[in-house]
Amino acid sequence: MSLTTIFQAIVGGLLLGGVYALLAAGLTLIFGVMRVINFAQAEFMMLGMFGAYFLSTWFSIDPLLLTVPVGIVIGALGLLMAQGLLERVPRGDHNAQLILTLGVSLVLQNLALLLLGPTPRVVVRPYTNAYWSPAGLFINHARLYACVASLVIMLALYLFLTRTWTGRAMRATADDPLSAGGVGVNVRRIHVIAFMVGSGLAGLAGTLIATFNAAAPSIGNNFIIIMFLAVVLGGLGSVAGATLGAFVVGLVQSMSGLLLPLQLQNVMLFLVFVLILLVRPQGLFGFRQRV
Amino acid sequence: MAFGSGCEHFGSGREMVASGVRAQGLGALQSRLRAYSVPVIACGVFIAIVSQITDFYLSRLAALIAFWAAVGMTWNLIGGYAGQLSLGHAAFVGLGGYVALVLQQEFGIVPWLGLLASTFAAGLAALIVGAPTLRLSGIYFSLATLAYPLILQVLFTYWGYQEALIPAHPESPFLFMQWRDNRWYAAIFGMILMLCWLATVFLERSHWRYLLTAVREDEAAAAAVGINTWLVKLWAFVISGSIAGMLGVIYAQMLFVVTPETMFGIGVSVQALIVNLVGGPGYAIGPLLGTLITVPISQALEAQFGSISGAAQLVYGLVLIVVVLTIPHGLMDELRRIDPAQYPTLGRIGSLLMRGTTRAAPPSVPGVVSSPVSAPVGKGEVLLKADGLGKAYGGVIALRDFNLEIRQHEFIGIVGPNGAGKTTLFDLLSGFQRPTSGRLYLRGENVTRSAPYRLARSGVRRTFQIPRPFGRLTVYENAMLGGLVGGTEVARSSMEEAIWRPLRAVGLAHLANKHAESLGPSQIRLLEVARALVSRPLLLLLDEPLAGLDPSEVHELIDILRGQQAEGLTIVLVDHAIETVAKIVERLVVIDNGLLIGDGVPAEVTRMPRVVEAYLGSRWDDARR
């Protein structure tokens, strides 16, 4: 194993991590504010990928330009889901919420499968197979653009959460919904907005991923554990933690490619995921949180 | 409410006692026969019907119904009765199927022997996976279970079993479980379903039901009555997993061509979940009911659109959403809540389906009571000793170098302003939190690192600041749980008396058949006290028991406690209302900022300058005026 291969793996991992950060940030934002684990997050990403694919092939628009409009549409879908489904079950009933998002995930994935068939669809742009090679490394243009775009969106998210009233209200709600309600935050509205923003982020990520990864109805299954792992690594509910976690996941994934056969890369991720969950103190003595 | 009213309204309670006594005679046999005969008859009818089906698809459907109902029942044990939402049941079904398959492919071992190996392997996997995972709570447990089947799916794909063909042996179908005719599979699944069902009925009628329900309703409260919640969940998980593994073996033989996706995929876990959600988790018949509704639909869709089209999964997704929004606790729960007077037919169906199980009177169980009589304690002996206890949360020190000796027969009040460290101290004394420094001794034995259930079993019982009753159990059952696990066994007859005495004492005997969630706030508080008293503890720790009680209720509760003290009970009570507490107790301990600042006779402690200055201030002067 040469030094270049290791560097190549590191660069590849960081580029992946940048895109994972968007997915993880959305998931953790939803959990942090609503205490809901959104199983449908990967399906929102899948919809974003198909949105980018169809719009770019029909109207020959570059998928990178579609990022924001597609993200807004997916966000609106998330808004409908939060308003129409999640807000209808008691807020503390985590199992019911979990089952609801699982149901939505199954519906979206299989609806896509019924309508579009299982064939993967590839967006081909000039930058899809172009490489930039400084110092013997290969850097795919598509992945680089996606990573940069993702970092720009993360910066926008950061500014939204820290500089706007809604963003601050969201953080306040995540911290303590009762107190937030007490100082005039409409907690229900913030919940719905958080879900909208979170799913919109998944849609944005989907359009970016579509530039280097084929879109397929079941693509979400490959990403769901990655998202969960990044979120769990960073501590459920922390956007900064999830961002960091996403980069770690990207690195673990591409580094384990050096050591393990391709098919076992995911096993590595699953094992890390389970291990992190098991040694996390928050989960270990959960009932004390409620005392 | 009046505390003394228990005796007048004792009628309903006495009936229950009487039924408990009768239950040991002929009635018990009859009710047991009624309960256990349902699965046997149902299985007989099922096999009789199946034997008449000649159509290939219909007999396959019958086999699948029996299979999924049985798998659903194994999920129900951990997901329904123990309340742990597992999203990874496929791990056990798949592991079972694959272990037998690999044994047959690689070593030529017949599947009947593979069945044993698979059952064992799946149970072992459940033990290895469950031991750490079941320490997680709620959502974290669900997330972790999600990963296990995915790991196995990837591993078996990697090991080259993407599409495993079971070696064909058309010459001896019975030896190799390879029947051309699906009716044989239907019959064998029907038999296993019957066994699972019988086991569930047995569970419903034994004290296991109460252990599992307590864990499901409130793990902290379950620990406070001495239940080792982790071990109870682990038992349920291992039994559930091993039987699911056994079912997986026959399922794989029936499928004949097996892929990791069909055995470990999310579809399998969702199917196990969905039959329970539709039917009603925590009901013996729930999974069967759910299977009868969902599996024919999904099979019809697969026949129409093909099994990989996603149509069946799409409908399952819709079913999940609709069920959670409309019947969140399943059909059985809806049936249970129907008023039979209004809808006689539905009521009759409901009682037929629940026959001999859910509505049965609580079983009279041989309880265990940590009775001071069997372990005599000398008056004045040190029961619980805190030796330099300290607790820090990160940089915040909640309690520092705390020394306290609680002696037999004392009535101690611990007071302090909000944030003084009272609740922390209380959690340390009852084992619900571990100290960061110092030691805790119970009758000379170091119990610093003891789990809360261990302290509860040794006779240290507590109540909670925010009461934690088992809401969906009756008042009687709540009290019974107080004495279900503990130190010394007592006979059935004295168990009845041990349950009724505290219930009468707090005046709840006439509400024995009411669900705890239907009680008022002060009644719930008293129920917690009664639950703690059933085990005849050595030491009773009461966390703000007076909050929310009106003055006359406070007075009556104090009378009850004094009565218990006269019988040898040691009581520690925590509150912030120093004026009230000082009048009640014989010894007053004051803490402030995590430090002990006063300890002694109330009259003296309340005059200590430090106490007056740090805590009482002008309020005490006002109160004494």
Structural class of chain A: mainly alpha
CATH architecture of chain A: Orthogonal Bundle
The CATH class label of chain A is: Mainly Alpha
- What ranges of chain B have pLDDT less than 50 throughout 5 or more consecutive residues? 1-23, 369-374
% residues in beta strands of chain A: under 5%
Into which percent range does the helicity of residues of chain A fall? Answer: over 70%
Can you list the strand order of the major beta sheet of chain A? 1-2
**What is the N-to-C order of secondary-structure elements of chain A (H for helix, E for strand)?**
HHHHEEHHHHHHHHH
Instruction: Tell me the structural class of chain B.
Output: alpha/beta
- How do the strands of the widest beta sheet of chain B line up side by side? 8-9-10-5-11-12
Mean pLDDT of chain B: 84
Which spans of chain A of ≥5 residues are poorly predicted at pLDDT below 50? 283-291
Termini distance of chain B? 31 Å
C-alpha-based Rg of chain A, rounded:
19 Å
Count of DSSP strands of chain B: 12
Instruction: Classify the fold: give the CATH topology of chain A.
Output: ABC transporter involved in vitamin B12 uptake, BtuC
Oligomer: heterodimer
Count of all domains of chain A: 1
Proportion of β residues of chain B? 5-15%
**Which outline of chain A best applies?**
globular
- Terminal CA distance of chain A reads 53 Å
